Amino acid sequence: MTGQMYVEKLVPIHGVKHAWPLVFIHGAGQTGTNFLNTPDGRQGWASWLLNRGYMVYLVDQICRGRSSYHPSSGPTITYPAELAEKRWTACSHYHLWPEAALHTQWPGTGRMGDEVFDAYYTGLVPSLVDHAAEQTAMRTSGACLLDRIGPSILVTHSQGGTHGWLWADARPQLVKAIVAIEPAGPPFQSTITKALDAKPYGITDVALTYDPPVATTPNDTKPLQTKAYQATNGWTYMLQQEPARKLANLVDIPILVETGEASSHAAYDDFTVRFLRQAGLTVEHLRLSEKGIHGNGHLQFLEKNNLEIIELLELWIAKVV
Questions:
Q1: Among 118, 133, 170, 281, which residue has the least CB neighbours within 10 Å?
Q2: Distance CA 214, CA 230 (A)
């Protein structure tokens, strides 16, 4: 069997107090265990939400963790410990982007040999290399999950952000809101290679429902017309060329994009927000630093102030649904 998706259902022991469950979609190299506990043994986001009466679903993306991999699904990639240090846990030591110097919230040194880092890294798993194939299979699995559990709030992280957009596109009537924690971006680009030919549909590698519809091309190389913008950090960012096509199935879904102060996403999440608004969506951009929450990198749900962050996110969820 291929394409199956493991989903863990967590129910509050004192009863469900909120109408809509939360569905967490983790990022690349990770699993749903990201949200259970932290690698230094503190309470995770899922436990915090359960204590407040939310039903929670944690998925393992296809071919990851408990969603078993089959060789016919294609090759995989495993992130080395050195990359995890540089981009997520000890980024202040490497200065790969200006904001990295502000990173203070990882518990421990964030370096190999530190017990917290080693506990975290033991949980990393291989991911599929083919993003389009992964997104296609996850869209099918996600639609099936939403058909089964009913209207839900999606909470996505990083590469898992692509699935949130696709699930909402496939089942807009079943997605009450999207909380996108530093979603995969910026539009049309890869953050690792800075290539300008990634995510041809702007925020995904496979087709979304645009109005007017996009023309299909071989390998979906240029379904959208783009325009380049020069940012103050020296990067060239891409948005749609005006008049921009609208993401027709997502226009009625409230969206929160949240960004940590010290993450690499601090440099470009604004362009993801601009792309979404250009496509007609209602988007709020929550920069943690503007709420007095400082020092966070990309793995906020594991960092020292993780509960302060989920409390802030829950306030937004309660406001919009």
A1: 118
A2: 26
